[in-house]
Amino acid sequence: MRLEKLQTMTVISLFAAIIGIMAQIAIPLPIGVPITGQTLAIGLTATILGSRYGTYATMLYIAIGAVGIPVYAHLTSGVGVIVGPTGGFLIGFIPTVFVIGLYLEKTKFTIIHATIANIIGTIITLTFGTVWLKISAELTWTVAFVSGFGPFLIVGLIKSFLAGWIGIIIRERLLKANVIQSVIPKSG
User: Fold this and answer.
1) In angstroms, rounded to a whole number, what is the distance separating the alpha carbons of residues 147 and 131?
2) CATH architecture observed for domain 2-176
3) Which of 49, 60, 80, 154 is deepest in the core (most CB within 10 A)?
């Protein structure tokens, strides 16, 4: 039982690290919110680990950055990032990963369902990010939507497909190899 717990904690930590690494793949935009690999990592985490452990990994990632370890986009960190204009996207990752994982647990872990779940997750992340951008930067709804939602929708749909496709392939291989059998939820 202790080995299972250690294995679970290791997998959660590994996925938190993967999110932090992929956050460094960033394309800065003039609107202040970059396009990053972090949202793809969130989708992969949820698709592979499911709602419970995916959420733990995401919360660990956010906590690591909040205490000052530079794991957010552009090697930033701190509570200031969370309460700043892009903080809504970070906080939005928590319900995003939970909903993606829950959707898959209630349906089936297939590429089609994973893609649908990740599209839903993209909408959740963009909504949280846009609302927080509007509030924190004191923007109008139109400016917030144009800055925080619109530019990321097409890229988000592409990442949703990639997270669904790659995530299911990785998940199936990990199950087949019995690598993290105790961590990954069973198909719905």
Assistant:
1) 11
2) Orthogonal Bundle (1.10)
3) 49
